[in-house]
């Protein structure tokens, strides 16, 4: 299949012409979401369907490499390259409101995270896949002697004076809710390798070894956090994620690459594109929540 | 919904007349599976649809109790009451072939088990449900310092001279395969509380505290295993399951009971009936495999 990541609409295998027509139609109606996606991912120049089709073909082209390097290259280019995600920019300095926004919205992300990881286990017999997901769920959600990521997140929020109870009673922002709905749909309807590509690619956001792929920004400025104004709870949360996401994201991509020859690569790419589209918006929700907190609207 | 556990065919809510018609039709065609189910669960006397309908209504009746006691009463009556499952009878003495058959077929059961437990996690936000399933998966499948149930099973098989490799390369018997297919379908399509009822009710097979519900047989004769002919690997496997299934089954039923008021009870009952139907046949596959081994056909 080919996919429109904005609408989550699916087209025939390799049917990049129909996909281009869809985008041109949306652009004609001045739909800002489709235009923004085109600008960010394909071209900033106005194109007709004949001009767009080779760009989509090129987007899906593995360029002789595997799915692993395709995903890393795509992710770096959209999130951490010359035109990084605004959240990455914000994280280059210490801003307590951004971190508070992060804490609130990310709680809902992690509640969905465990549901996606367990869906993967439920859909495969491969022991290495199951064990990988099990360990990921333990680190992120359940804990095992050590505090899981979700507890460190709630500790960070509490350090800022936002109680666990308050977060749990919060309705996530629209972008977060939309993202969760799409991830839930992927977990329910897609195959294990597609869910894996959709979800674990997102852990590349914090991977610190992506310079060779063109990353120009770290997830956060390690230096900026080396000061006494930053609460210990913040450091504990960020450092833990920083270390575990390095291993998590690459190990998952290695597993996907290993099994990918037995699966439809285009469907794996679709799942990646569908997921990173809502992830982009979800990261904006972290900023939006931070601004609400700064303006005393939360 | 009402369900035919044999065909997994669904009828309208409370439509026990249509369900009765279905069974009468099958009985007229002398379908042995439907007749056997009727004999085991409703009546040994030939009945018309008018006679059968109140029996089905009665089967689904909670009798003023909750879903927990309904499940326990049903399970005990079908598996461990006056007319127990043949596998229970076999297990009252030590029979090494039966245990070898158990080891071979149960490997495939446990491979599906972890898929069902993780499907439950993937479909709920309730933390107590997720934690329960996580701990169950660790005990049964992944291990955590201690050997998981599946490793103890493979140890038992090895003790009998059946290698892990051989088991993993075995095609499960038809009854086992059919059961796994149905459990997989339930894990994919049903809600979390229905999957929970479908799967964890099965752990009642080894629960040692069911005398008050009318259980007349233990899962296995503890006394028979108190002898030197029984390999240590067999004792380790049986005793571990014996202890963990006690806690597992009742804790799961308590969780189901706690949340059941927010869900359609009849759908939970359907899931239970659909699952125990294939479980009955699956336990027969353990005997069948044991006989194959005894006759050197495996």
Automatic annotation (TrEMBL), chains A, B:
Please spell out the taxonomic lineage of the organism that makes this protein.
Archaea, Methanobacteriati, Thermoplasmatota, Thermoplasmata, Thermoplasmatales
User: Which molecular-function annotation in GO is an example for this chain?
Assistant: oxidoreductase activity
Q: Which Pfam families match?
A: TENA_THI-4, zf-C2H2_9
Q: Which UniProt keywords apply?
A: Oxidoreductase
Query: Which organism encodes this protein?
Result: Ferroplasma acidarmanus Fer1
Q: Which InterPro entries match?
A: Haem_Oase-like_multi-hlx (IPR016084), PqqC-like (IPR039068), Thiaminase-2/PQQC (IPR004305), UCP032676_Znf-C2H2 (IPR032553)
Q: Which residues form the UCP032676 C2H2 type zinc-finger domain?
A: 1-59
What name does this protein carry?
A: TENA/THI-4 protein
Q: Where is the Thiaminase-2/PQQC domain?
A: 82-285
